[in-house]
Amino acid sequence: MSLPVSKDQLLATRQLITPHIHQTPVVTNNTINQMAQADLFFKCECFQRTGSFKIRGATNAILSLSKEEQSKGVVTHSSGNFAQALSCAATKQGVKAWVVMPQNAPSVKKAAAQGYGGEIVECAPTLVDREKTAAMVIEKYGATLLHSYNQYPVIRGQATATMELLEEVQQLDYVVTPLGGGGLLSGTALACAHFSERTKVIGAEPLGADDAYRSFHAGKIIPQTNPQTIADGLRTSLGDLTFPLIKSLVSDIITVEEQEIVDAMKLFWSRAKIIIEPSSAVTVAAILKNKSLFAGKRVGVILSGGNVDLERLPW
Amino acid sequence: MSLPVSKDQLLATRQLITPHIHQTPVVTNNTINQMAQADLFFKCECFQRTGSFKIRGATNAILSLSKEEQSKGVVTHSSGNFAQALSCAATKQGVKAWVVMPQNAPSVKKAAAQGYGGEIVECAPTLVDREKTAAMVIEKYGATLLHSYNQYPVIRGQATATMELLEEVQQLDYVVTPLGGGGLLSGTALACAHFSERTKVIGAEPLGADDAYRSFHAGKIIPQTNPQTIADGLRTSLGDLTFPLIKSLVSDIITVEEQEIVDAMKLFWSRAKIIIEPSSAVTVAAILKNKSLFAGKRVGVILSGGNVDLERLPW
Fold first, then answer.
1. B292 CB contacts (<8 Å, ≥6 apart)?
2. Residue A310 and residue B311: Cβ atoms within 8 Å?
3. Is B187 part of the contact surface with chain A (CB cutoff 8 Å)?
4. Which residues of chain A lie closer than 8 angstroms to B311, CB-CB?
5. How confident is the model over B36-54, as pLDDT tens digits?
6. How far is B93 from chain A (nearest CA, A)?
7. Residue among B96, B100, B99 nearest B73 (CA)
């Protein structure tokens, strides 16, 4: 497959967004290395602006718009990390951001996006209403719809996390990335394809939202229905841009159970003293569950975010 | 007062222990800076080996012993971070460590010290029994007693955290340090006295264990009785070596209430995504409580540790 994103495009993306994001640290932990019998390099996007990697894709998407498009604003539907990221990235560039959220979204999520300058537009909690509401904003203001993962500018932005990792840590055998809609995983796979061909890319997915695992093995998109997982960033389905990239560039998908996610999250908190959200912990769980695969290897791990409701911890 | 620890001694200490400890990162956080209206530089000893700065003093104390003393082992009484630190530092140097803990100490504390190779010696939960039990170990094995804060080799070791901070961040107006027995604060004050005279040193103490505040203002040691604070590392009383250093080198002591400690801890977790223990959060609480003092200043903050029981969070 000829890749839809070139090496030069990735380099240009990185140059474009670097002034607006944090270069996050890569950390190691002796205890977890011993448990995994591998050398793990954790790329800490939990320390990223707005608490997740989503600011990378959001920033690139906004900077990729024309001045005229920017002047009319952007709209997305998300109640998760992309809502905060887009609000922050847009506000920083002086661009108006509307965020469509269901009425029943937790008020803390609404407040977070508002805190970064986004304007919440409430809708009934159905897919149809969500899309109708976004269409209304587009119709009324001429805003551009930005998708949280299924657009190339977003995917290119997410790739930059792995570009930084590959520059800081050489000779990685694997990079393991959380897998929901596939934006981060697609970006990770593109970065490895262009900058470290020897590095195999693996997606880590909750068993309770394993549409990507099933799609990967079926060879066609099987949408996620009724996802059941604590990893709230990974409940989404693959998109028509992310699936082909994953199918052709990703070497495997590992699924993990809910208790494994919680255990991995707690282990990481107590040993590394770093707050990762359940969606990030899925990677750690996948590695500890597959010791024979990773034993003796150098493994990059993208810890995608650290946005957790401290009042409602899963233990 | 002529200082009991020289600049050359601190430099030698740092050289001695550096191969055995982590150089911990200094992090900043925009949101917390905005709240404090100051430039805060957090020295993250929560990422230190064994989860706290205590490994610095423990390592220096062990490396300062003669070969013969080392061959007979060391003993301490502690159920906190020093127990883990001494166990780890001793084991790493091939030195036997006995840790005297009351029978009723939480099993998680015993397991932690044992996990690092220390041997737990249980005693009845009284001061007399603790000292009798330590004396018994000394009598039987010829072990050397190491105190968790009131010995110069330990104090010199703790000073190295601030030495690293002063090297990484110039022109600090203040350094704020948690204050329990005063080992970390004494070391901090010595480091500033020798390497950054312009930097004022402030201790942060829980109101529920404010013996240092009262001693500082009375001009004599007033021992802590019945401390009531969630900051379990700060329940101890000043020692006869730490008090004179604090009295002569520390510019002020700020006390904070329990709810302020909990709020600061939660704020730091949610914003910085870094796990700090209540004893560390006392510094953040002290700064947010005294905005007029710190406004516009460059302030170093020693985050002493990150050992928290995740099953029993204070919110």
1. none
2. no
3. no
4. 315
5. 999 999 999 999 999 999 9
6. 18
7. B96
* Type and span of the H or E element at B100: strand B97-102
Mean pLDDT, rounded, of chain B: 96
Q: What is the mean pLDDT of residues B294-302?
A: 98
Strands (E), chain A: 26-27, 39-44, 74-77, 97-102, 119-123, 144-145, 174-178, 200-206, 252-256, 298-303
Q: Is residue A35 part of a domain?
A: yes
Q: Could you tell me if B181 and B246 lie in one domain?
A: yes
Task: Quickly tell me which residue has 């949408």 as its tokens.
Answer: A223
Report the CATH number that the domain containing residue B116 is assigned in CATH. 3.40.50.1100
In this structure, the answer to whether residues A44 and A178 fall within a common structural domain is yes
Domain interval for residue A138: 55-145
Q: In what order do the strands lie in the sheet with A144-145?
A: A119-123, A97-102, A74-77, A144-145
pLDDT tier at A1, thresholds 50, 70, 90: low
Domain count, chain A: 2
| Alpha-carbon distance B47 to nearest alpha carbon in chain A (angstroms) | 7
How confident is the model at residue B90, as a pLDDT?
A: 98
A237 and A298 inside one domain: yes
Q: Which residues pair with A204 in a beta bridge?
A: A178, A254
Last residue of one domain, picked from the residues A119, A145, A171: A145
- Quote the tokens at residue B289: 């409580």
- Tell me: the pLDDT tens digits for A264-285? 999 999 999 999 999 999 999 9
